[in-house]
Structures are given as C-alpha cells and as structure tokens.
Design goal:
alpha/beta; about 10% strand; elongated
C-alpha cells in the first residue's frame, strides 16, 4: 500500500513539475469536481489552464493568483457564476466558457483589458455588462445560444472587434453604437427577433464582409435599400472570389455566406 501511495505522490510531483516548467496545465476530461489546489499553488508559473469537460461548479477566488495566465479554458462544466476578482487576471488574452450555466457576467470583466477572444456560447446569459466596452483589444466575441434580449450600447467601444457571433438568442434590435466597429468583418445574428438593423451599419462598418440574419423578421429588400449596400456587396464578392481563386473548398452553406436572411 505504501509503495502505491509513494508512486502516486511521485507521479503527481512530476506532473506539477512539468506544469511549472512549461506553464501549461492541461486537465481536460479529468472528472474534476473541485478546482485543483496544486494549480493555484503554481501562481505566476501558469500561462495556459485547460479544465474543459469536467464537473466544476465554481471557480475559487484564489484564481486571481494566476496573474500571468494568458489562456483560460473552462468549457463544458457546471459553472453558474464567475468570481468578481476575475478582473485581476490582467494577462488574460483568451477565455472560453462555452457550455456552462452562467446567467450573468461580473462587471469586473471589463478589467481584462488584454482580452482578445471571449467565447461564452451555450450558457444562460440574459444580458452583458456595460463594462464589456472596456475590452478595447477584443477581436472575437461569441455569445451565441444564450437568452440575450439585447446587446449593450457599450459594445461599440470594443474598437478592435472583428467577429461578433450572437446566434440563437432573443435579440430584438442592435444598438446604434455597433456602427462604431470599423474593424468588424463578420456579424452573425441567426435565430433572433431582429426586424431592423442600424441604418448606417453598412456605410460605417467598412470592413464588414459577412452578415448572417437567418430566421429573423427582416427582409432582403430592407437590407438592400440600406446605404452602403453596394459597397458591402463588393467586399463580400471580393472575399468570395478570393476563396475560389485560392481553391478553398466551400460547402453549399458557404456559398450563401455574406448575406444570409
């Protein structure tokens, strides 16, 4: 028995040593029900933490010790809320929270000023905090498959945003500030309740190449009459032609990308 305990302890010690030297903690599919203390003890050593597909219900306040962490993957757990001191993870660039039971995000989310990718699809969000507008380096935001009725006006301050996915929600309209997203390339809003979009969207979002609005009460005629539609079409076609020239395999669904209504 003592031999087995000693062997397990040695394996654990080797694992922790490896985490410390690489900065990568990978514990996918480990059947964890609680956050591992040995990870928290690594503090500044952790650069990437992957706890995908476990049974975690909560994230401890002490996660704030991992101040050098750049990537945090917590998808497919049972998490209901995030700790308020999440904002202390000032080095965080990528955070994945898909497939949990999160109903709200803390205002402190806005403190993650280096965040570039945030994915929280398949949760129970009813709103996003206004502080999300402080995420000036955010390039990708995926909030699909939640219960959102709107997006905050502050979304227009996410000036680096290139891709916004908000499919399968209850969104009725978009804030006018979306027109400030001059780097936005792709906007996906399938399966919502949107009957109109901001009139200047196509005119002001000069990088926009793809808009997907399947299963919304908005007509193609409305869309085509918007100012800037011709320029948008030219960008969409240029991208599509480039894909063809590059011999990219495009599915039948892909042929529709650009304007999906």
């Amino acid at each position: 028995m003592g031999c087995c305990v000693s062997k397990k302890a040695k394996l654990k010690a080797n694992q922790v040593s490896r985490w410390r030297s690489t900065g990568i903690v990978a514990l996918r599919d480990a059947k964890l029900k609680t956050f591992p203390d040995e990870v928290l003890d690594l503090e500044k050593s952790v650069r990437t933490l992957d706890l995908t597909n476990n049974k975690l219900v909560e994230i401890p306040l002490d996660i704030s010790k991992l101040i050098n962490m750049q990537r945090l993957a917590l998808a497919d757990n049972l998490i209901e809320q995030l700790p308020v001191n999440l904002g202390k993870l000032q080095s965080l660039k990528v955070m994945t929270l898909d497939g949990n039971q999160i109903s709200s995000l803390p205002d402190e989310l806005g403190q993650l000023v280096r965040l570039e990718q945030l994915s929280i699809l398949g949760n129970m969000l009813t709103s996003l905090p206004e502080t999300i507008g402080s995420l000036r380096n955010l390039v990708l935001l995926n909030v699909s498959s939640n219960k959102l009725k709107s997006l905050p006006e502050s979304i227009g301050s996410c000036f680096s945003l290139e891709e916004l996915q908000a499919n399968d929600n209850l969104i009725e309209d978009l804030p006018a500030s979306v027109c400030n997203l001059i780097h936005l390339k792709s906007l996906s809003l399938n399966n919502n309740n949107i009957s109109q979009i901001p009139t200047n969207l196509l005119k002001d979002c000069k990088a926009l190449q793809n808009i997907s609005l399947h299963s919304n009460p908005i007509s193609m005629d409305q869309f085509q009459q918007m100012e800037g539609f011709q320029e948008f079409e030219a960008r969409r076609k240029k991208k599509f032609d480039k894909q063809i020239d590059s011999n990219v395999m495009i599915s039948s669904k892909g042929l529709d990308e650009g304007v999906d209504l």
